[in-house]
Amino acid sequence: MAAIEQEKTDLVEVLSSELDASITLKKERRMWVEIDSKKIVDVCLKALQLGFEHLSTISAVDWLEEGRFELVYHLWSYKYRTSLNIKTKIDRNKPSISSINSIWDTYAETCERECHELFGINFEGNSNLTPLFLEDWQGPPPFLKDFNWREYTLKEHYKEENPREQVYFEVKK
Amino acid sequence: MRKPSLFLNQIICTASDYMITKKKVMRKFVRAVWVFNWFNSCGFTELCPVVGSRWDMERFGMKAVNSPRKADALFIAGYQTPKSIKRAQQIYEQMPNPKFVFALGACTLTGGMYWDSYNTIKRLEDYLPVFMYIPGCPPRPEAIYDAVFKVLEHVEELPDK
Question: Is A139 within 8 Å of chain B by CB?
């Protein structure tokens, strides 16, 4: 037990010195690191070299009041059996970040496609940002906090004149 | 002098007449509907009992086939998205005539509990010629059998071509 604890503190030290950022040990086997968005490719490459070879997913969080998107890169290490979440924040009005497809290739590309179509984030260097789930989609990115999906659906798909569909308009918006 | 062209015509004519009569007779023996399933999400899991031993659907001549080119009926269940309905249309186009589309369940008919989603189909009839609507969430197996019996009745009434 003591050996595992020792190994973990060693890992935190190594990571914080290598990645040049402060590491938070949230839970057992779960670490957070917050970095600047410009360093994302370097940090991911360093993490890969340190043994975090598996990219689970890329998720985005919309902080509406703050006016920023938070991108979370979930990495996993088979060697240390620990997950590392790399967090970075980007501007909400011009959401743009460099792509990590040079490191995790097509899988990162797919994750970035998803973020692009659901949040409208532009990944520089990713040549394939075609829609993944939403074919023929004309509206704004649907996962944004200020997108009123019910209002949009009522406007696009239903007609208030149609007696069969009036019931849908009685629902509170 | 014999006229081979006329002679051939007669043969073809009689052959087609014969085939039509044969069709009418054969149609009375139609007791099977081969089904191609296009099930999204919970539509599949809820209709699994129809295949299973309790409501064994092969008793009534229903058989799930693995290619739309063999199928007589297309079963659509679960909510449909603009992406999945395109694939359903492709499947429908590949099926030989006569072909029937069955819409199973509330989600397929009107969007169901996903009526206010931005990415579901609200009216299936805008995309495919639906032969029969089977409401329910999910529809009971008995309702599906009833629908299939109606198809078998309908086959006997089909016009001859």
Answer: yes
* Subunit contact B82:A135, Cβ cutoff 8 A: yes
- Tell me, yes or no, whether B101 lies in a domain: yes
Residues spanned by the domain of A64:
2-132
| pTM of the model as a whole | 0.76
Number of domains within chain A: 2
A103 and A156 both lie in a single domain: no
- ipTM of model over 0.85: no
Question: What is the 3 state secondary structure string of chain A?
Answer: CHHHHHHHHHHHHHHHHHHCCCEEEEECCEEEEEECHHHHHHHHHHHHHCCCCEEEEEEEEEECCCCEEEEEEEEEECCCCEEEEEEEEEECCCCEEECCHHHHHHHHHHHHHHHHHHHCCEEECCCCCCCCCCCCCCCCCCCCCCCCHHHHHHHHHCCCCCCCCHHHHCCCC
pLDDT tens digit sequence for A25-59: 777 788 888 888 888 888 888 888 888 889 999 99
